[in-house]
Amino acid sequence: MYVKGVNLGNWLVLEKWMSPALFDGTTAEDEYYLPRQLSPEVYGARIKIHRSEYITERDFAAIRRIGLNTVRIPVPYFVFGDRPPFIGCIGELDNAFSWAEKYGLQILIDLHTAPLSQNGFDNGGICGVCRWSQAPEEVDFVLTVLERLAKRYGQRPGLFGITPINEPITEPMWISMDVPNRYPPVDKELAQGSAPNTLEFLREFYGRAYDCIRPNVADGKYVVFHDGFQLHAWKDFITQPRFRNVMLDTHQYLMFAESMGCEKTLDGYLGYIQEHFAEEIAQVQEYVPVVCGEWCLFNSCAVGVDTKGGQSTLNGVDFTQSRQRMDPEAERDFYRQLAGAQLAAWRRGSGYFYWSYKLLLDTVNSPDWVGWDSWDLGKCADMGWFPQGG
């Protein structure tokens, strides 16, 4: 099956920039500190309302109508509700499987966070902290979560596969993203010793994760390993005879391309997409199925200001400076060309998942979010930027 999918980001794993109102009344920048700054009653009510309204059965019908066949659902390490003060979300995941199966969709369960974080990003649960791989007991805990997920959903027809951990950062991206400065920790003592994961650790963890998942899922289901932002580092590992139905997940964003020196023009992006995204995925596809698990149309040129690698006003970027905005027709053509080029690149592999299905941002009345529509697949489809059927 060629994967045409979308991420249900910010549903069960919160990201402040995708729904800032959830964090109202706090100074929290991530999910770790949100329940620590709200009373249990307020936190519980806020989370319950968010989860019940953000994604519903209607959204699965809409995703199918767009022409997609798969959803990637980020889940937190506290999915089973056993890590207070966080509230579990296994009931919501159960609902998602029923909805997916009704509308002919499949689900990639993506364990998106780990205790003490695997990357130090806000989407890793706690900014500026990256110590999970240094805590053997927490590594073991994550393995128990994966095993429980595999046992619960392994025989469901709606399961596509399981990703053992999302975006475990390695040294090149740690340096490129300048994680300690881009995501300054609130508690410097808690962040003490934070460092990128090693490839040696990831290979060992992935082997153990595979052994937890594979015996508990049907033969046709996939174990999907994220590349740790090093797409070409996995050939010897992932082609081992012991692995069956494995897939490599790579995340390719134009904002990453910009930070690597890609010219912020349409021609610059199109050239980079062909030379790097398409060609490199084709190389890896020769020995293992590869899926682009996260991508989107977002870029600085369309926003009209240098976003410095996708940073927002939450990172302190000044968006009051003069913008060079396109008229609607030019903007539509711009995005259509970027969509076509990237979709062609992913066809060199085994598919894609757009990030993300929806955001709760006012991109009309809030100057800070003008131009951020392109993260929202539902809006991109409605605007004619993303082709029907993917």
Structure description:
With 390 residues, this protein is an alpha/beta fold. 38% of the residues lie in helices and 11% in strands. It has 15 helices and eight strands. It has helices at residues 34-37, 40-54, 57-66, 90-102, 136-153, 171-177, 179-182, 188-191, 199-213, 235-238, 254-259, 266-285, 300-303, 328-346, 377-383, and strands at residues 3-7, 70-75, 106-111, 159-163, 222-226, 246-251, 290-294, 351-354. The chain has an eight-stranded parallel beta sheet with strand order 7-6-5-4-3-2-1-8. α4 (90-102) links the parallel β2 (70-75) and β3 (106-111). The two termini are 14 Å apart. The relative contact order is 0.13.
Strand order of the largest sheet: 7-6-5-4-3-2-1-8
The whole-angstrom Rg is 20 Å
Low-confidence stretches: none
What's the N-to-C terminus distance?
14 Å
- What is the overall silhouette? globular
Strand content: 5-15%
Query: How many beta-strand elements?
Result: 8
What does the largest sheet look like? 8 strands, parallel
By DSSP (H or I, 4+ residues per run), the number of helices equals: 15
User: What is the helical fraction, as a range of percent?
Assistant: 25-40%
Classification by helices and strands: alpha/beta
Question: How would you briefly describe this protein structure?
Answer:
The chain is α/β, with parallel strands linked by helices and 390 residues long. It has helices at 34-37, 40-54, 57-66, 90-102, 136-153, 171-177, 179-182, 188-191, 199-213, 235-238, 254-259, 266-285, 300-303, 328-346, 377-383, and strands at 3-7, 70-75, 106-111, 159-163, 222-226, 246-251, 290-294, 351-354.
